[in-house]
Specification:
By secondary structure, the chain is α+β, with helices and mostly antiparallel strands. The protein has a domain of 151 residues: Up-down Bundle (Butyryl-CoA Dehydrogenase, subunit A, domain 3), CATH 1.20.140.10. The protein contains twelve helices and ten strands. The two termini are 39 Å apart. The chain binds acetoacetyl-coenzyme A.
Amino acid sequence: MADFRLSDSEQALYERAMEFARKEIVPRAIELDIANEVPVDICQKAYEAGFMNLHIPKEAGGPHNTLFEETLIYEAMGYGDPGVATSINVNNLAFAPLVIGATIEQLQKYVQPMITSEKARFGAFCLTEREAGSDASATKTTAVRDGDEWVINGTKCWITNAPVADLFTVFAQTEPGSGYKGMAVFMVPKDAGVKIGHIENKLGQRASQQSEVIFENVRIPEDCLVGEVGRGFHIAMMTLDMTRTGIASIATGVCQRALDEASRFANTRIAFGKPIIRNQGISFTLADMAAKAHSARLATRHAAWLADNKLPGLGMDSAIAKLLASDYAMQNTTDAIQIMGGYGYAIEYGMETLFRGAKLLQIYEGTNQIQRIVIANELSKRAKTLDTGFRLNYPGVDAPDHSFKQ
Ligand code: CAA
C-alpha cells in the first residue's frame, strides 16, 4: 500500500533542518540579502550539520543521502531564505555530474578532499554561457587534447558560488561545430588557473553569488575528464533531471514560509474590530496558499521518490515539480505581501526579501518555459502510444505525427 508518511529518521531529519532554518537562517535573512555575499559562516554550519554534499557515495567519503532526504533538507533551507539555500545547495549540483559520470577513483581524488576537510569547500556547476543559457548545447567553451592534458578556453557566466569555489565542473566542446555530440564534462581545480570575472548584481537571492568564470589556456590532467567525450550534454541533462527537485524543494519552503508569515499576521492584525483572518477575502487567499504549498511538496517529493527508486519519468516529474513549486512560491509571496499590506512591502518584516528571492526560482536550473519544453517533449513521446478508448479517427488526419518538440 502506498504510504505518504515520513519514516522516523526522515521526520527527525526534517525537524533538525527546520530548526536550523529557524535558528540560523530566518533571523539573518534580511541582513545577508543586503550584504550580497556568499554566507560562508552559515554554509560552514550547514556543512557541519551534514546539509551539504548529500549524494557523494560512501566509498568517496560522502553520506550518500537519497534525493528524498534532499527534498526535506532543502525545503527547510528555502523556508529560511532561498538565497542562503542556493548557496548551501549548489555543491549538490556541482558534484551531481561527477556522481553520475566519474569513477570512484576520480571521486576519491578530486571530490573526497573537498567534502572531508574541516572547512566547507565549494564546487561550481559551469554550464551556462552568454549565448548558451536555455540552449545549453550551444556551448562555445572548448577543450582540446594536448598530450596527456586537456586545455580549456572560454567564459562561463551566471555560475553560482564561483567566487568561493575550489572545484569547477565544466561543460566544454571538444569538436566545435558538432553541437551536443562533441560535448564533454571536466573537473577543473581552481588552482589550475581559473579566473573569476564579473559578479552579478541581482534583484533577489543576494545571499548567493553568481559570476563569470574565465578559462584561458587552463591545463588539466587527462583524468579530469568525466565519463566519455560526447556524453557531456547527456550528463548535464541527467544532472538537471535530478537537481530540479532541489530547486522545487527550496520553492516549497518559500511557499510554506509565505503562508506561515501571512497566517500569523492575519491572525493578529485587527481591522474593523476583528483579526483580518476572519474576512473571507483574506482566509480564502490563505486557503489557496495552503493548497499551493501542499501541491508543491507532493510533486517534489514524488519526483525524488521516482529517482530514488530508479523508476521512469523523473525528467518530466522533476520539471513539473520545479514549474509548479516555483510558480507557487512567486504567487504565495505576492499574496503574502497583499495580506500584510505595508508590512509586507517594507524590508524589515522579511516578506519583501522572500518575494524578490522567489523570482529567481522561476529562472535558474532551466526557466519555467524550459520546464514546459521538457514536459511537452515527454507528452509528445507518450501520445504516440496513448489509448484513450476512443476509436473514431479524426477526419483528415492520417499517419499522424503529433510531435510538438521545439
Ligand atoms: N537525460 C539524458 N539524455 C537526454 C535528456 C535527459 N533528460 N534530455 C535530452 N537528452 C539527450 C537526447 O536523448 C539527445 O541525445 P541522443 O541524440 O544521443 O539521443 C540529446 O540529449 C539532445 O537532446 P535534445 O535534442 O532534446 O536537446 P535540446 O538541444 O533540444 O535541449 C533542453 C533540450 C531541455 C532545452 C536543454 O537544452 C535544457 O535543459 N536547457 C536548459 C538548460 C538549463 O537548465 N540550464 C541551467 C543552468 S544551471 C543553473 O541555472 C544553476 C544555478 O546557477 C543555480
